[in-house]
Structure formats: structure tokens, C-alpha cells
Amino acid sequence: MSLVNTNWNHNYLYTNGVRLHYVSEGEGNLMLMLHGFPEFWYSWRHQIKAFSKNYCVVAPDLRGYNYSDQLQSIKLYDISELVKDIAGIITNLGYEKCILVAHDWGGLIAWYFADQYPEMVEKLIVLNIPHPAKLIEGFRTPQQLKKSWYVFFFQLPFLPELLIRWNNYEAIESAFMNMAIDKSAFSDEDIQAYKKSAAKPGALTAMINYYRCFVKQIFTSEKSWNKLDVPTLMIWGENDTALGKELTYGTEGYVTDFTIRYIPNCSHWVQQEQPDLVNQYIADFLDISLS
Predict the structure, then answer these.
(1) Is 188 an active-site residue?
(2) What sign results for the dihedral spanned by CA atoms 216, 219, 220, 224?
């Protein structure tokens, strides 16, 4: 059953020069959920429903996605700007900190955000995205470079957009259905929601611009990472064809209080493919009951 047309609250806020759309539900402490590519707030549909009983759950469309502003300049997708967006979301909503839950590109932003603003992160939960230091390390290996071929294809102008638009955004459907282990996790309505979001004017270029901007940092970054002193949970679908499981090894060297939960027979789309198990692992980490 699709939850794209639920009665959850849809709102906008303005921060860091951009208008961001978000969905919210529940009351209490803030749980902020950041989606990945090629998604939007909807990828958290199972988690919003589950955790709004305990928290004020907010799932924004990241800049460039869905109903948030599409900015065409590549430099406006620098990780520093994305981090400022998250700080602005938290303060605009009237909070000083949050429980930060993030997947894929949202998770990459979350790692940088927690490093820069640890006082604003009560707990960090990342799904199928390694620590940036491990990711950059992985991009220097043939094994991960082969898995991440699309990152370099996205550096081309125009052609990636044309390919993704071809045949009614067939590439969007393939990204979910070809990678998923449990194909039933995605209904036709779910796939249409993702296609519709990517088809919004300017959205596709904006989404790809995340990669166009970040790839330069992959090979030029000299950032030194502080050891993160924020309790952190990593959840990892073991059958991720885009990011190798080996990228998780050694994460404890970057985080003081680190917990990892692997989920076998599960793809990159972990919170959508195994929502009940993901929700239970998160609840256990937060020491709350979902019943």
C-alpha cells in the first residue's frame, strides 16, 4: 500500500537560501530523516508511520528533490551547503538537536553534519552508507570503482539526464527493482511516485549535480576526521550492489560508540525492503517500544 497521499503534514521552510519541503508527523523530540538518490521523503514512509508515536518525525525533500527548490549550479550542491541546510532545518523547526536518521546520500550528509555539529545530534543512525573516510578509501580500489561506475558516468553533461528520462524514466524503475532482493517491497504506485518526483522540472539535473560536485572531493579531499563522540548505529543490507560491505569494516576507528547491524538477503534499499527489522533495530538502539 502506498503512503504517498497520506494525511501527514506537508510544509515548507526557508533556510540557507533555499525553500525546502518536508513531511512531518507526531510530537516530542525531533527525529530527522534524510533520503538518498533517486528518492525523496517517501522512502521513509514505513519509518514515519512507526516512529511518529514517539517523536516529531520530519522527512524533508533535500535541496533539488521533489518539491524543494531545484538549484541548477553544481557548486550549490557542495557538501558544505547541504550540511548548512540540515542545521537550518533543525533550528527553523524550533529544536537545538535531533536524532538523525539517514540513508545513502542523506547518510553522507549526516556523517559530515555530525562531524561539524556533534552538539546538534543526539544519536546518529545511518543506513547503507559508509563513513566518508571509508567511502573515499573505497573509491581508490578497483572493486568499489566497478560498483560505482554510475558516479563517473554522472560527470558527463546532459547524457545522464537523457538516459534516465528514456522510455518513461525506466532507469528509475530499474534502480529499485533490479537491485531489490524482495521485489514485492515496491508496488507500482511506489515506482510511479519516484518517477513523478524525478520528472519535476529541473529535479533530475539537481539530483545528479550532487555527484558532479562531490566527485571532485573524492580525489582531492584532505579532510582529517575527528573521532565522532555521538552514539551511532549503522544498518547495512548485505546485498548492496552499489556499495561493498567491506566499506563498513573499520568504522569503529571513526566513532567512539558504534553499533552495526547487518541484514542478509537485503539490498541497498534497506529501510524499504526490510522495514520491520530496520524499525526494530532503530527502536532497540533508542531503547523505545514500537507497540
Answers:
(1) no
(2) positive
